[in-house]
Structures are given as C-alpha cells and as structure tokens.
Design goal:
By secondary structure, this protein is mainly alpha-helical. The chain contains six helices and two strands. The model has no long low-confidence stretch (mean pLDDT 87).
C-alpha cells in the first residue's frame, strides 16, 4: 500500500470512528423523537422534496410499497409532521409538505450532531484547526473539479 492509499485508509477509519461518536452523542435526541426510523426517513424525503414530494416518491426512495407509505404518511400527518396539499397540476393528486414541526424535528437532530462536531473542534489546537481547514478546502476543490488535485490558490 503506497502512502496515498495508507492515508486514505486512515481517513476512512477516522471518519467511521467520528460517525460512531456523533451517533452516540445524538442518541438521546434520536430516542426522544415521536417517530420511527421509517417515518424519519420519509420526513427527510418530504423536506428535501421542497413541496414536490408524492407518496410514490417516498415509496421509491424507501423501497417499500405504496400501501406501506400510506400508513407512514397517515401517522406523520397525525403527528403534525407532514401535511397533504392539493397538487396544482393534478387535482386528483396530493403533494406532501413538511410542517414547521417536521422541519424542527429534523433540524434538532442535525443540530445535535453538529454540536458534537463543533465542541470537538473547539478543543483543537489552532494549528490543528488550520490544518483541518486546509485539508477540507483541498478536498472540496478536488471534489468540484472532478479531476486531479488542484494546487491551493488556483
């Protein structure tokens, strides 16, 4: 294994450990939710759909039947997390939109995980924090160019 492969492997290991710690830190918030995992996933699909989500779309993403989605959506509506609204393009159809409560639930989970990350970064030495920023900026440059590493400043 060359140095690049070795470093990439080390990053994978560290990211996995970090994700486990973030999940542990978020567990209390996750367990206090009034939603099941499937309901939470469906809520995320609705939120990211920006008002253009259908039951069919949720079924595709979650890889479940429309009958299953119907029950999930019924419960989300009863919890005040999602609401059905008429489709402007098809009067027979209904679109699903997240309520403020639904967005707040997902946001609270994300904040919990973000709080863990920010608290850990706050404890880093400034040199390590600079190195982290440099590495993340380099990763973003390469990710968005889709090619070879781009030297900083170009």
């Amino acid at each position: 294994m060359d140095e690049r492969e070795s470093l990439m492997h080390r990053i994978d290991v560290l990211e996995a450990a970090s994700e486990r710690m973030r999940l542990d830190a978020s567990m209390e918030a996750l367990m206090s939710l009034p939603l099941t995992v499937q309901q939470l996933k469906a809520t995320a699909v609705v939120i990211t759909g920006n008002g253009d989500t259908t039951a069919q779309r949720i079924a595709e993403v979650l890889q479940v039947s429309l009958a299953t989605v119907s029950g999930i959506v019924d419960r989300l509506v009863s919890h005040g997390v999602v609401e059905r609204v008429p489709d402007d393009r098809d009067r027979r159809a209904r679109r699903l939109v997240a309520t403020d409560r639904g967005r707040d639930i997902l946001h609270s989970l994300m904040e919990e995980a973000d709080g863990f990350r920010r608290a850990a970064m706050a404890r880093l030495e400034i040199e390590d924090l600079r190195a982290l920023v440099q590495g993340m900026e380099a990763l973003m440059r390469v990710a968005f160019t889709g090619g070879e590493p781009v030297p900083a400043g170009e």
